[in-house]
Each structure stands twice: as structure tokens, then as C-alpha cells.
């Protein structure tokens, strides 16, 4: 299921999922979220708009409840940034699912937005990236980047003046700063991996394992 | 590392590619979707469609093309030509284009840049600039509109600054002096434009081979290079160009993935 809150890349994300699996349910109805087998939060544009749209549509609590229940979740671009605690873009408070902040690129000799294909180096293994070589290039368009406060969150790293976590993953949550739906076959492979991971109980087992370790 | 982008450009008339590629067996070399898929598989980083349909009665043909491309091609693509209002931008973006490119309409109605950037984000507003050297004045270029027919009196570098200040997220810079000659881009123009703005500059006009692309990306400070005929006539493949650039130390995306 793909959350419709007016994000510009909503249709591209839905098309990519349709290409690798089947057409997803695209919904703006908070009541649908609890019933989703897998949830995708797309996004492009400004943090303030994103959060304002999520709030005005009553989507914040259903998303947080869904994630807290350990169900498979994918955030894309702004859908990653929204998971962090706070964004420098408008000083916006975000969902706070993952520890970290969203920072603005400092231009110093570089073009902003960071636009185009950049490489991503995997720092660990994960079902989401299966079959995609480390160092593969993905399509980025953004002026702000995620600064995670727990380095263990990073699954992929990218350098653009600063090194940042371009893919994060924890338990049932994965998210990319780049646009897999615009990154050719490697991007499609990530969507296929996400669907397979979700169908296999995506992250739920890992959450249970983490709970088991904690107890 | 951020890669330099290689972008094939197609002219589209009533939903069909004209001057289409002529070197490979395609079921239908005028079909934009088939061509887009071919170039995607070849390693193109992005695609640009320039709609040259003369009659507004035929606009629906380009809408169908954009939607069909977005359904089957998973790399970014830009649509230019015939975009005169925010509603035109909205239609193209909702159909699945990643960016819209405006040229004459941006000069006639500069607020269109601001409105488009405000509504849809700078990242999807490309301002295309056709520039010609001002005779006798080194380092001066004039902006032309209507496919290069009408002089505007505007200085190209000044217009580049204004367009980005208004919210353009990328500039597509075509030199009318070098366009069509296959002898290289106007790297002095490109460098002046690229150094004047903080957004990416796409070089256009004059590519005859990969060495010209390398020059535009180094001497010209361009972030991406666009070309039409050298790809469409099969003079060079995208892969050949990229291998050349990689050997010249320019970062390009070379990896090949299995189709998903």
C-alpha cells in the first residue's frame, strides 16, 4: 500500500511496484493503513509541506502505530527524512521514528540540489539490497540530507561533500534518500526485494528476535 | 561519487519520434516508449523529449506518450515544448514526467518559473536557454526564443542568474553557434553559465563525439551532456561514450543490471 498525501512521486512509486509485483493500493485514508500488508511512504519536496500534509490528513498516528506494530515499511526520499526527529528545512518536527536530524547541504563549490546518479556503498547485509552490488549508482534529487545519530542505522552510505546514510534500516523499517523508482533496474530490484521481504514477514521476525534478545 | 549524466534527446511530433534512431532493428523506431527503453538499457542516465507538435489540437498525443513512457521506463525524463502555463506543467508531471522544460514561455512570462517552482519544487523546473555569441563582444551571448528565431536582447548569463533566482532547478544550455555542427559544444558559454549559477547545467548543441562531451564536462564545467544525432545515427553508443569518459577520469554510471 502506498500512502497518498499529495507527494509528487506517488505515481512513479506505484508504477515501479506494479512493475515488480502488482499494482499497489494507493490510499489517503488513515483507516486503510492498519490493514496494509506493507506500507510505502513516498515523498519529494519540502519537509514542512510533507509533515503538514501528513498531519492534516490524520496520517501521523496511523503511520506511527503501523511502524510500532513491527510491520514492513519503506520510506522514499522525503519518506526517509520524515522518519527522523527534526528537519533543518523550516525547523520542522518530523515523525521521530529513527534518531537523527535532517541537515541542509552546505554549497561550498557544489551544486545544490544534489541531483543525479550517485554511488551507494553498503555497510552491512540486508534482504532489501540482495543482488545489488555495493557501489551501484542511484538517482538522487535533494537539498537536505539525513544525519542519523545512531551509526548502526545506516545500510548504505553516499558522499556529497559530506558522507550521509542514503539507506537506513532498522527492524521493520527501510528507507532510501534516493529514488529507486527512477534508478533503473537496480532501483526496481530494491522494490522487488522490499515486496519479497514484506511477503516473508518483513522485519517482523527481526523485531521478535530483538525483543527476545532484550528479554 | 556523483556521476556526470549522459542524456539522449528526442524530438516528438504528435506522439511520434522524428529523426528517430536509424541503426538498430526496432519494431517501431518512431515509438517513443520503445526508444526510451532501448536507451535505458544502453545506460542513458536521463531522457529529454522535446514536443514539436505544431497544433495545440494534437496535444493529447504527447500526453499519451508521457504516460506510456512513465509506465515502462524507470529513469528520469524531462518534457519540453508547448508548456506555457502552470496547468501544462501540472498535467505533464501528473502523467509521470519528472521535470518540465520551459524556454520561450519562461522569457515571455518569467513568473512561470516562480509559480512552477513553488507548486512543484525547483527540482522539476528546467529552464532551457538558446544562446548565440554577440559578434565582436567576447564573453557575451544573447538569448533567442521560438526555436532560435527571435532575438530577445537579453544577456544569457544574466538570464541564467535570473532564472535560477526565480527557482529553476536546472538549466539546459544550447549554443546556437555550435548546434548541428558536430564540432563540440561552446565550452566558454557553458563555463560562464555554470559558474554563474548554483544549479546543474546540461550542455547542448554541437556534440560530434565523446571527446566533445569530455570537454563540456571539464572545460565547460557542465554537470550533464545532452545529444541527439550522434546517438540516433549510431555514430556512438551511450556505452561507448561512457567508456571514453570513464577512461578520461570522468565519473559516469557504467554498471549494467539484469532487467527486473
Please summarize what this structure is.
The complex is a heterodimer of chains A (215) and B (260). Helices cover 30% and strands 28% of the residues of chain A.
What does this protein look like?
The complex is a heterodimer of chains A (215) and B (260). Chain A has a single domain (2-214), classed as Class I glutamine amidotransferase (GATase) domain (Rossmann fold), CATH 3.40.50. Helices cover 30% and strands 28% of the residues of chain A. Chain A has seven helices and 13 strands. In chain A, the strands form three sheets. In chain A, strands 3-4-13-12-11-8-9 form a seven-stranded mixed sheet. A four-stranded mixed sheet of chain A has the order 6-5-7-10, with helices on one face. In chain A, strand 11 (154-160) and strand 12 (162-170) form a beta hairpin. In chain A, helix 1 (10-20) packs across helix 6. The longest helix of chain A is centred in the C-terminal third of the chain and has 16 residues, at 184-199. Mean pLDDT of chain A is 90; it is low at 207-215. Chain B has an eight-stranded parallel β-barrel, surrounded by eight helices. Helices cover 36% and strands 23% of the residues of chain B. The two termini of chain B are 25 Å apart. The radius of gyration of chain B is 17 Å and the shape is globular. At the A-B interface, helix 1, strand 8, strand 9 and helix 6 of A face helix 2 of B.
Could you name the key traits of this structure?
heterodimer, A: 215 residues, alpha/beta, Rossmann fold, seven-stranded mixed sheet, four-stranded mixed sheet, 7 helices, 28% strand, B: alpha/beta, eight-stranded parallel β-barrel, 10 helices, 36% helix
Topology:
The complex is a heterodimer of chains A (215) and B (260).
Chain A: E1 2-3, H1 10-20, E2 26-27, H2 30-33, E3 39-41, H3 47-56, H4 60-68, E4 73-76, H5 78-81, E5 86-87, E6 92-93, E7 100-104, E8 114-122, E9 136-142, E10 144-148, E11 154-160, E12 162-170, E13 173-176, H6 184-199, H7 204-214
Parallel strand pairs in A: 1-2, 3-4, 4-13, 5-7
Antiparallel strand pairs in A: 5-6, 7-10, 8-9, 8-11, 11-12, 12-13
Helix pairs in contact in A: 1-6
Chain B: E1 5-13, E2 16-18, H1 32-42, E3 47-51, H2 59-72, E4 77-80, H3 86-95, E5 99-102, H4 104-108, H5 111-120, E6 125-133, E7 141-145, E8 150-155, H6 156-166, E9 170-175, H7 187-196, E10 201-204, H8 210-218, E11 224-227, H9 229-232, H10 238-247
Parallel strand pairs in B: 1-3, 1-11, 3-4, 4-5, 5-6, 6-9, 9-10, 10-11
Antiparallel strand pairs in B: 1-2, 6-7, 7-8
Amino acid at each position: 500500500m502506498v500512502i497518498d498525501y499529495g507527494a509528487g512521486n506517488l505515481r512513479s512509486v506505484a508504477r515501479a511496484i506494479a512493475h515488480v509485483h502488482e499494482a499497489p493500493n494507493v490510499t489517503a485514508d488513515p483507516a486503510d493503513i492498519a490493514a496494509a500488508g506493507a506500507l510505502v511512504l513516498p515523498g519529494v519536496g519540502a519537509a514542512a509541506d510533507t509533515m503538514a500534509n501528513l498531519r492534516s490528513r490524520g496520517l501521523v498516528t496511523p503511520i506511527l502505530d503501523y511502524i510500532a506494530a513491527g510491520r514492513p515499511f519503506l520510506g522514499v526520499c522525503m519518506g526517509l527524512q520524515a522518519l527522523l526527529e527534526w528537519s533543518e528545512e523550516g525547523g520542522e518536527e518530523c515523525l521521530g521514528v529513527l534518531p537523527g536530524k535532517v541537515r541542509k547541504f552546505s554549497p561550498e563549490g557544489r551544486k545544490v540540489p544534489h541531483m543525479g546518479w550517485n554511488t551507494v556503498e553498503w555497510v552491512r547485509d540486508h534482504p532489501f539490497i540482495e543482488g545489488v552490488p555495493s557501489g551501484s549508482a542511484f538517482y538522487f534529487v535533494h537539498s537536505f540530507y539525513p544525519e542519523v545519530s545512531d551509526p548502526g542505522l545506516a545500510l548504505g552510505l553516499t558522499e556529497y561533500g559530506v558522507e550521509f546514510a542514503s539507506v537506513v534500516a532498522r527492524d521493520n523499517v527501510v528507507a532510501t534518500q534516493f529514488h529507486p523508482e527512477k534508478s533503473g533496474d537496480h532501483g526496481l530490484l530494491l522494490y522487488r526485494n522490499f515486496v519479497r521481504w514484506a511477503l516473508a514477514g518483513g522485519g517482523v521476525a527481526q523485531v521478535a528476535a530483538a525483543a527476545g534478545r532484550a528479554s | 561519487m556523483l556521476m556526470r549524466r549522459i542524456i539522449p534527446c528526442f524530438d516528438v511530433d504528435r506522439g511520434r519520434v522524428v529523426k528517430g534512431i536509424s541503426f538498430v532493428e526496432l519494431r517501431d523506431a518512431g515509438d517513443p516508449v520503445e526508444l526510451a527503453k532501448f536507451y535505458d538499457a544502453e545506460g542513458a542516465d536521463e531522457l529529454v523529449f522535446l514536443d514539436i507538435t505544431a497544433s495545440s489540437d494534437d496535444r493529447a498525443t504527447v500526453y499519451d506518450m508521457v504516460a506510456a513512457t512513465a509506465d515502462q521506463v524507470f529513469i528520469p525524463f524531462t518534457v519540453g515544448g508547448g508548456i506555457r502555463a502552470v496547468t501544462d506543467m501540472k498535467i505533464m508531471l501528473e502523467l509521470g514526467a519528472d521535470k518540465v522544460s520551459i524556454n520561450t514561455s519562461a522569457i515571455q512570462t518569467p513568473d512561470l518559473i516562480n509559480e512552477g517552482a513553488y507548486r512543484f519544487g525547483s527540482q522539476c523546473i528546467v529552464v532551457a536557454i538558446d544562446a548565440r555569441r554577440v559578434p565582436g563582444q567576447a564573453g557575451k551571448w544573447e538569448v533567442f526564443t521560438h526555436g532560435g528565431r527571435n532575438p530577445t536582447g537579453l544577456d544569457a548569463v544574466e538570464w541564467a542568474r535570473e532564472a535560477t533566482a526565480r527557482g529553476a532547478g536546472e538549466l539546459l544550455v544550447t549554443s546556437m553557434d555550435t548546434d548541428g555542427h558536430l564540432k563540440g559544444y561552446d565550452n566558454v558559454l557553458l563555463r560562464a553559465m555554470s559558474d554563474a549559477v548554483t544549479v546543474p547545467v546540461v550542455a547542448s548543441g554541437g556534440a560530434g563525439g565523446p571527446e566533445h562531451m569530455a570537454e563540456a564536462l571539464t572545460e565547460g564545467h557542465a554537470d550533464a551532456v545532452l545529444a541527439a544525432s550522434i546517438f540516433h545515427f549510431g555514430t556512438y553508443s551511450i556505452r561507448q561514450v561512457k567508456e571514453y569518459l570513464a577512461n578520461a577520469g570522468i565519473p559516469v554510471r557504467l554498471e549494467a543490471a539484469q532487467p527486473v
